[in-house]
Amino acid sequence: MSEHFSVERGLFDDVMVPNYAPSAVIPVRGQGSRVWDQQDKEYIDFAGGIAVSALGHCHPALVGALKEQGEKIWHLSNVQTNEPALRLAKKLVDNTFAEKVYFCNSGAESNEAALKLARRWALDVHGEDKSQIIAFKQGFHGRTFFTVTVGGQAAYSDGFGPKPGDIDHAEYNNLDSLKALISDKTCAVMIEPLQGEGGIVSPTDEFIKGVRTLCDQHNALLIFDEVQTGVGRLGELYAYMDLGVTPDILTSAKGLGGGFPIGAMLTTTEIAKHLKIGTHGSTYGGNPLACAVAEAVLNTVNTPEVLAGIKTKAKLYVDGLNSINAKYNVFSEIRGKGLLIGAVLNEKYQGQAKNFLNAAMDEGVMVLVAGASIVRFAPSLVISDEDITLGLARFEKAIANLV
What are the residue ranges spanned by the domains of the chain? Predict the structure, then answer.
């Protein structure tokens, strides 16, 4: 059957719900850290599909895993388990604090599972009075109604009717604000070990350790949302490993599948037992295709060479951005960790991050924003030094066009 319509940007407005406003560029193929659009224009990818394409585009290990599993079995109900899911769970357990894993399809779903587990644990162990969940202002935990309410940006949760209750928000990096809210009625504290959407904000050592101590004092579970920070993004397999703090529950997604949708919630046997048969589920969770790809991602990323390489590549980025800034004076600060980097626009360019993104696109480099005044970089963890240098040269050109 031949198609009698052209697949171009205008079609989006005709057939898609208008909750997104995608750019005019439609990428059609990618290789490594480079992407080509319908007109065959080349872009360097510094966006990584928002920290998802952990190994760039069409990485041979991922393509191989998908093809191999694609010839075997795609889907089973939860009445059966499958080999890729078991292999992946074993690798996650062997390489983290966790003893048990639950699979789903996205970051929001992994956070939803974590929050439901925390509430069920508190009910079973402590009774129905212990239901308060504390998260942090500017935090982001997904778009389901529960996770978006726990997220600390009311603009995303307002306007949909009554919100799930008993959720409060403290200030990130302000231990006193958490102290003021937490009590023995708190069942869980949910936190990003580096705030992503909220502006690429790293926690202070005193703060993140203080959060763990307060949770212990009040018998509250500590949930680390590592959807964006996990799977090597900050230079360790998971960010908690470099903070001297171990959570009770950890959520993972984004980079875990390298572009194939998968989410995972990790926890201990003692806590996991409260999600008894029938208390939670997912039709596609633990899908053999997703788990086979995620296993290939984990095998590739969780090596000393790749993890050490992330730190050296990060330095190349930061040095490059600082030298651009020495010429053009557009950033007040370069912050972040590993390959999750935020260039904060100074007073003169407040609110203009989107203009920087668009100018970069015109010059053939894809970047992200984190809020209205921060340009965010979340490239492939194995991007070549050559592509970093070339992409930064294009980014510099974009800035020269703007200022």
Answer: 9-58+304-402, 73-301
